[in-house]
Every structure is written in C-alpha cells, then in structure tokens.
Amino acid sequence: MRANERMLRALARVSAFTTLRVARRFAPVLGAGILREGGCVYLAYCRARTALPAGLSGLDETGRECWVNSVYVEDWYRTHVLLAALMLSDAVFALWEKQQDRRDGLVCMISKSRMAASTRQAVVWKMHRHRHRHRHRPGHDWLAEDLSGYDDAVLELTSRADIAFVKERLCLRA
Q1: Which domain of life is it from (predicted)?
Q2: Calpha distance 4→146 (Å, rounded)
Q3: Which of 8, 35, 71, 113 has its CA 20 to 30 A from that of 82?
C-alpha cells in the first residue's frame, strides 16, 4: 500500500462508523466479472462500455487497463465517496481471488480531488494487473514512485490486507 500525504489527510476525515453496501450499488460492475483480453485484465462492465481509441495503441498493457478500468465513484455515491472506493477495491479483490484462485496480481488505485467551483469530490477508481517483471521498466507503472508530487490525493492498494489495514486505522482512530 502506498498513499501520499493528501490521501492520508482525506482518510483521516472518513467516518469509522459508516457502513456501505457496495455489492448492491456496484452490482452491475461486480456481477459482470473480470475478463482477460489481449494480455490485459479488465472489469467486463468497464470493457463493454469503453472503446479503445486508435491513439491508445502506443500504451502498454498497464495504460490500457487503467484507461478502461476507470470508475467515477461519485456517479454511484453522493456521500462517503472515498469509503465507497475503498469498498469497491475490496469487492474487486474478492472477485479476483474467486475467479483467479489467487490473492496477488491486481493493483487498485484511488484518486480524490475537488471538482472546480463545487463542494463535491471527484473520486476516480482504477485497476490494473500487477506485473512484477515490469516494476523497473520505464512506462509500465501508472503512478510515479514518489506519490508526493501529485496534486490529487492518491492511494495504491495491492491486496485486501491493505484495505483491512486502512479500515483498522480508521477504527483505531474512532
């Protein structure tokens, strides 16, 4: 798990006592499952709704996956948007474990920013397959090594254990 300071401050404002039922709200996303296509892993719901423009041909697999596997959480939730993104990550990791019979292999990313001239938050959730062999090759990581350079709050999760750690910290704070 990696997070920048902006995300740590945002997580500090999340209520430890809020419970969300993401399985119901995100049922169309989760129910469609995960598919493999052209060396990439996609949420089938996102892939069915996203055309890959010709300009994406220069992107590596990680770039294509992040382009397609992008969910604007505020379109699904009006409140507790950051918590909803965490719960979506947990549900996707659970789906991955069930379909692939393995715990490792995915990265979920959450970014949060304020919408211009609004009090609403823009929370974007993305997913890509974790490629250990590409970790040191330029261009195969969606996020920079140093997350402090991002203007948005950024969180990178690699397992359900990361989410459990975040939830535990929220409950310890309460």
Answers
A1: Bacteria
A2: 8
A3: 35
How buried is 145 (Cβ within 10 angstroms: 0-12 exposed, 13-18 middle, 19+ buried)? Answer: exposed
Structure token pair of residue 157: 């999760």
Are the CB atoms for 116 and 125 separated by under 8 Å?
no
pTM above 0.70, yes or no: yes
Structure confidence by residue, pLDDT tens digits, 73-95: 999 988 889 999 999 999 999 99
Distance CA 169, CA 30 (A): 26
> CA-to-CA distance for 18 and 95, rounded, in angstroms?
23
Sign, Cα dihedral of 21, 164, 94, 132: positive
User: Is the Cβ–Cβ distance between 109 and 157 less than 8 Å?
Assistant: yes
Determine contact, residues 86/80, Cβ cutoff 8 Å.
no
